[in-house]
Amino acid sequence: MTPSTTIPSTQPASGPLPADWRDLFALTKPRVMSLVIFTGLCGLIAAPERIHPVLAFTAILCIAMGAGGAAALNQWWEADIDAGMKRTAKRPLPQGRLDRTTARDFAGVLCAVSVFLMGFAVGWLPAAILAISIVYYALIYTVWLKPRTPQNIVIGGGAGAFPPLIGWVAATGEITTMPILLFAIIFMWTPPHFWALALFVKSDYAKVGIPMMPVVAGEKSTRRQILIYAVLLLPLTMVPWWIGGTGAVYGISALVLSSLFLLLSIRVGLRTRGEEDTMKPEKQLFAYSVLYLFALFAALVLDRFVVI
Ligand code: HEM
Ligand SMILES: CC(C)=CCC/C(C)=C/CC/C(C)=C/COP(=O)(O)OP(=O)(O)O
């Protein structure tokens, strides 16, 4: 599948539409990216070194632009797939509110500016990691992995795990154990986060032929795998405390938050659903997964300022 062969059906015949800023903004997946940016910001604040507030703001702006640009490239590539799924059919490209060329150019400018601004203003190491995460999401995950393997989001999850690492490296200029642990935590969190959602939108993915885990391996196997990742996530979130990278504020918060994550995952992992099932536990796990990551990273920052 290439965009050029499948997307024209969603496009108007009379040439480019005037770009509405609301549609361009929607192209950046702002709700998802708010957590991506938040984890990047927390990585930057939790790092042991301080940079000038203007540079810190620039680094976060670059993460936001890079993540938004990558999300826009994802939608540019997948406009036909999005058109076929209930959850995504109202996006600007499938609706024909925005033309493909504008979307592609907007995405390209965001990605390029984010990397070069990060490089010139903050440092070339965070810029290089930002470039890798953009390529990872827009190319490796979206174009290569997503249509091919049910392990797409396990391997592809690496893309979303980079922002706290980028924030930390923007502040310190080096990759150390702590930012690698933050990367690992998001990497381990991604499968339960996404598969909880995939369980209740399974038919959407089946309809457009995307081999998400519940479609390919079935619900039972997906539930078991959610549980495995949640079991591993709990001790992993404790490691920053055990190695002395954080204090008790983070450690206790991580224990409570991850225990609840595990409990909700056990409920999803061990159940078989009936005909009229509304998938409430799966929806709760998905909603909690978002709240969980916000709270975990907030605790990381709080830990820097509150010592008990
Ligand atoms: C490969 C990795 C990931 C996949 C496949 C994935 C997939 C999804 C999907 C399909 C949704 C529903 C969003 C929608 O309907 O537009 C969603 C929601 C969300 N995701 Fe993820 N996600 C991934 C990683 C991440 C990461 C790394 C973060 C942040 C650190 C994140 C944050 C969120 C948030 C905040 C929402 C809720 C958005 C809302 O309230 O509408 N996701 N995710
Ligand atoms: C700095 C940088 C580049 C960060 C990237 C962050 C990142 C990879 C986030 C992934 C989150 C996301 C929107 C996944 C959606 O999957 P999907 O695209 O398959 O979902 P869809 O079906 O809603 O389009």
What does this molecule look like?
It contains 15 helices and no strands. The chain has 308 residues and is an all-alpha fold. The longest helix has 26 residues, at 280-305. The N and C termini lie far apart (55 Å). Residues 1-14 have low confidence and may be disordered. The structure holds protoporphyrin IX containing FE (HEM) and farnesyl diphosphate. Protoporphyrin IX containing FE binds next to helix 3, helix 9, helix 10 and helix 15.
Please describe the topology of this protein.
Layout: H1 3-6, H2 21-27, H3 30-46, H4 53-77, H5 79-83, H6 92-95, H7 100-122, H8 124-145, H9 152-172, H10 177-200, H11 202-207, H12 213-216, H13 219-242, H14 248-269, H15 280-305
The structure holds protoporphyrin IX containing FE (HEM) and farnesyl diphosphate.
Residues 31-32, 35-36, 39, 87, 141, 153, 156-157, 160, 186, 190, 193-194, 197, 290, 293 line the site of protoporphyrin IX containing FE.
CATH superfamily of the largest domain: UbiA prenyltransferase
- Our count of domains comes out at 2
Shape: flat
Instruction: Tell me the helix content.
Output: over 70%
Strand percentage lies at under 5%
Q: What is the overall pLDDT average?
A: 93
Low-confidence stretches: 1-14
The secondary-structure element order is HHHHHHHHHHHHHHH
